[in-house]
Amino acid sequence: MKIRIFLLTVLFLGITSGAFAGWVFVEKSQGDTHTSYLQDNRMKFVAGDHLIIFDLDKNKICFADPKKKTYWMGSPEEFAAQTRKSMENIDKMMEKQLAKLPPAQREKMKSTILQQMKKHADAPLPKVEVRATDQSGKIAGYEVRKYEILFNGQLRQDQWIAKDIMVDKEVDMKRFGKMMKTFHAGIGRSAEDIAMASPKVTELMSLKGWPLKKTDYDEEGYPETDEVIKVEKKSLPPSTFDIPKGYRKLSMSEIFNGK
Prior knowledge:
Blueprint: H1 2-18, E1 22-29, E2 32-39, E3 42-46, E4 51-55, E5 60-65, E6 70-74, H2 76-87, H3 90-97, H4 103-122, E7 128-139, E8 142-151, E9 154-162, H5 173-186, H6 191-195, H7 199-208, E10 210-217, E11 223-234, E12 248-249, H8 252-256
Parallel strand pairs: 6-12
Antiparallel strand pairs: 1-2, 1-11, 2-3, 3-4, 4-5, 5-6, 7-8, 8-9, 9-10, 10-11
Helix pairs in contact: 2-5, 5-7
Keywords: Signal
Protein name: DUF4412
Domain DUF4412: 59-247
C-alpha cells in the first residue's frame, strides 16, 4: 500500500511539475510581435526575420534566418573568436558593403564606422546600479513592480518585474549572463551592452522575477519599449528548441557576407 501511494505521488508530481514546466512570452516591440520560449536551460526567441536559440547546458547559440532557411550554431567563444578574426579584414568587408556609394561618401562612412568601433572598444565598463521603485501595476494579468537600471548614474533601462514569474527553476540566468557577456565582447558591442549582461542585472530576473515590460534609453534619453501581452506556463516539447528541419548550415564567413 505504501509503495502504491509513493508511486502515485511520484506520478502526480511528474504530471504537475513536468506538464507546466516551460514559459512562453508574447511581446510587442516597436509594432512587431516577438515570442520567447524558456524551459530546461534552453531559450528560443522568435521574430519575423530571425530566430535565436540558446542551449545553456551545451553552451551553444544558434542564429537562424527563417526567410533564407539558413543557420549558424556554435559556442559564444567560437563566435567571438571567429568574429575577431573577421574584423581583421574589416576594411575589405566595408569596401564591399559600401561599394555602391560615391568615393567621397564611402570614405566618410568608413571613417565614421571605424571611429564608432574604436569608441566602443576603448570605453570602460560603466558602474551599474539597480534601483527598486515604489511604482507598481499590472501587465498581462500579473502584478509588476518597476526597477531602474543606471549606468554611471544615468537611467538606461527600466524593467517592470512580475514576482510570480520565477524562471530561475527553468533557466540559469547567471550562466545566460556569462554567455551574453562573451557574445557581446566578441562582436565588439559597446561597454553598456556588456554591462546589461552583468550579474547585477541578470540577478533581477533570477531573484525578483521576469520583466514583462522594458524600456531602454539611449544617451539622449530617447525611449524604446517592449511589453509582454501574453504569458503561458506549459510543458514544451524538446523539439521546440531544435533547429527547424530543412535549414542549411552557414559558416561565420558566409554570415558576414550576407549569404
